[in-house]
Design brief:
The structure holds 2 protein chains of 2 kinds. Chain A is an all-beta fold. Chain A is built from no helices and 11 strands. In chain A, the strands form 2 sheets. In chain A, strands 2, 4, 5, 6, 9, 10 and 11 form a 7-stranded mixed β-sheet that branches. In chain B, strands 2, 4, 5, 9, 10 and 11 form a 6-stranded mixed β-sheet that branches. The chains are: A mainly beta, B mainly beta. Chains A and B meet through β5 and β10 of A and β4, β5, β9 and β10 of B.
């Protein structure tokens, strides 16, 4: 297991198009998180899963964003009708347990550019 | 909602000088974590502090959790060019809650 994998690394899309990102967490980690990071800012929480259950979704997240984690393994984050303000780095992280003795392990992220 | 703040936003130091970043939470935290993000990279977990007044050291890095569990600091002794990056503190209200990140302190080290 080489860590958290995210695909694609980069995505350029036209405004109004839909995009989907994939995250493969560390296999034994039961928690998976999505964060968004813009230049010069810290990661901003979007949503998280424990196994296949989505436990929390940020109130800042519009209805255009949806995430799934079927079977509690990989996760997808979809953004519908993209806007220029959606341009950011989308980070996925996983953890072994809720009490973070070892912290989050982040993937390398998907950089989204909406033109 | 819960907010985590950090100062300074940027710090430029000469190699060999010390560096400190401070973190403050608007609410009492269950624990605080520190992450480092190299330019072009992703956040990497450094350490977690849980107990009030806790101090932990990793080589030249010293981490401290405040008595009220609302603030923390990271001190680097004798900075090196390998210390360059952005340091984020991140806190949880409970040990089962999501982690909220601060805005980070960007460290530049002049050789």
């Amino acid at each position: 297991d080489t860590g958290v994998s995210q695909d694609p690394r980069h995505k350029i899309t036209k405004r109004g198009q839909n995009v989907t990102f994939r995250c493969d967490p560390i296999s034994e980690h039961n928690r998976l998180y999505w964060y968004r990071q813009t230049l010069g800012q810290g990661p901003e929480f979007l949503t998280y899963f424990q196994n296949e259950a989505q436990l929390e979704k940020s109130r800042l997240l519009s209805d255009r964003f949806s995430a799934e984690r079927p079977k509690g393994s990989f996760s997808t984050l979809e953004i519908q009708r993209t806007e220029q303000g959606d341009s950011a780095m989308y980070l996925c992280a996983s953890s072994l347990e809720a009490a973070l003795t070892y912290g989050y392990t982040f993937g390398s992220g998907t950089r989204l550019t909406v033109v | 909602g819960q907010q985590v703040m950090q100062i300074p936003q940027y710090q430029h130091v000469q190699e060999g000088e010390d560096f400190t970043t401070y973190c403050n939470s608007s609410t009492t935290l269950s624990n605080i974590q520190w992450y480092k993000q190299r330019p072009g990279g992703h956040p990497v977990f450094l350490i977690q502090l849980v107990k009030s007044g806790e101090v932990k050291k990793q080589k030249r890095l010293t981490f401290q959790f405040g008595e009220a569990k609302k603030n923390s600091s990271l001190h680097i002794t004798a900075t090196q060019t390998t210390d360059v990056g952005t340091y984020f503190c991140a806190g949880q209200k409970t040990s089962y809650d999501k982690v909220i990140f601060g805005p980070g302190t960007s460290l530049s080290v002049i050789p």
